[in-house]
Amino acid sequence: MRVAHLVSNFKWTERSEPAADLAVAQQAAGAEVFFLCGRNRLRPEDSIEVRAARKGLDVHRLDFPKHFRLTTVSRDVRALRRFVAERRVDVLHSHLPNAHLLSVIACRGREPRPRIVRSSYGPDGPYPTFRFRRLCLSSTDGLLVAGEAARAVVRERFRLPPERVACLEPGIDLARFSNPEVQADRPGFGLAEDDFVVGMVTAIGPRRRLDIVLDAVRRLAPDHPRLRLMIVGRGKIEAMIEEPARTMGIRDRIVLPGYCRDDRLVAAYRAMDVFAYPVPGTDPSARAIREAMAAGTAVLAGRTGFLPELLEDGTCGRLCDVDGTAFADGIRSLTDDTERVRLARAGSEAARRRFDPRKQAEASLRFYEALRRTGT
After folding, report:
1. Cys-Cys link to 184, which of 161, 206, 239, 271 (CB 3.0-4.6 A)?
2. Do 362 and 333 share a structural domain?
3. Do residues 226 and 134 share a domain?
């Protein structure tokens, strides 16, 4: 089977990485896989084309902007038409809305045409825009969603038959995040071995509700002299972290290692005793929670959105209300070593069971094959 994955962006983001990981796993499962993305306009380490090629994918560049542009659509559609014909593609799998639109336009009038599949990573499936309704009902063969709740919502919202909608939790690179050779290296992050470390991995901005975790640390600080908050990421550091931490009198408790990638990111997760995740940000599928679970770190998350479906409370992590008092109570409960280790181990086992890209690859290839057989 020949599968082309389409990511209409040039940045390596929370959407491009799971798309690339799925493509790699499908390739390992025996499919012939192509990966189409936008042209690099960044430093190599931040671009899709470089990072995807580094994973061993056959990468092809189009203009492919994230959002629809009249200035590029004709060029991209022509290029995609040629690509589909020359490579005899069986499935076009889009991971972003503009890629989905371009795949539909490029295949219009083509017989036989490849099956068109769209992945949606949100807790409620794709937004019910007029454009998506037209694309989904008339020209899209299959839809992959991140959870069973999303599957139920999508089937009801778009009146789709069950065989056209499947649940496929996004996978992660388990070999990377569960690699036992990557150590915590607390001194390398400016931490002491006896610190109790609450951590976040996040874009630093108002949507991520860093104020909740800062407030939790403020509440706990008087009784926990070794408590530290390590925030990994980049963004509005002064406004979102430095200024409120000084106002709260906890600036000395904050550790800011900056943006981390590859083994450094795994080491950061392992340096944390508790990974705190109040609310989803730009990635509603909460990829950082999956990574923390795989790395063997206990997770404390807000009881909101998709998170209760992702993290079973008391089994492989903890859920709490989305406020500073609740997060302080949750962190305090995880200072108990026995409970924290139990949750961390259960989370790691759940990650291996649920987020293995090989399982995602096998399930997605079965879904493609079923769509081809039904002639939807």
Report:
1. 271
2. no
3. no
pLDDT at 376 over 50: no
Kindly state whether residues 315 and 369 are assigned to the same domain.
no
3-state secondary structure the chain: CEEEEEECCCECCCCHHHHHHHHHHHHHCCCEEEEEEECCCCCHHHEHHHHHHHCCCCEEEECCCCCCCHHHHHHHHHHHHHHHHHHCCCEEEECCHHHHHHHHHHHCCCCCCCEEEEECCCCCCCCCCHHHHHHHHHHCCEEEECCHHHHHHHHHHHCCCHHHEEECCCCCCHHHHCCCCCCCCCHHHCCCCCCEEEEEECCECHHHCHHHHHHHHHHHHHHCCCEEEEEECCECHHHHHHHHHHHHCCHHHEEEEECCCHHHHHHHHHHCCEEEECCCCCCCCCHHHHHHHHHCCEEEEECCCCHHHHCCECCCEEEECCCHHHHHHHHHHCCCHHHHHHHHHHHHHHHHHHCCHHHHHHHHHHHHHHHHHHCC
Q: Is 326 found in the same domain as 275?
A: yes
Q: What is the pTM of this model?
A: 0.86
Give the pLDDT band of residue 44 (cuts 50, 70, 90). Answer: low
Question: 208 and 138: one domain?
Answer: no
In this predicted model, what pLDDT tens digit does every residue of 187-231 receive, in sequence order? 999 999 999 999 999 989 888 899 999 999 999 999 999 999 999
- Looking up residue 122, the CATH number of its domain turns out to be 3.40.50.2000
Q: What proportion of the chain, given as a percentage, has pLDDT over 90?
A: 67
What is the model's pLDDT at position 42? 66
Mean pLDDT of 43-69: 87
Is the predicted pLDDT of residue 169 greater than 70, yes or no?
yes
What is the domain range of residue 366? Answer: 2-171+356-374
Query: Same domain for 268 and 156?
Result: no
Q: Average of pLDDT values for 324-340?
A: 96
Domain count of the fold of the chain? 2
Report pLDDT for 261.
87
The pLDDT of residue 137 is above 90? no
Same domain for 277 and 364?
Answer: no
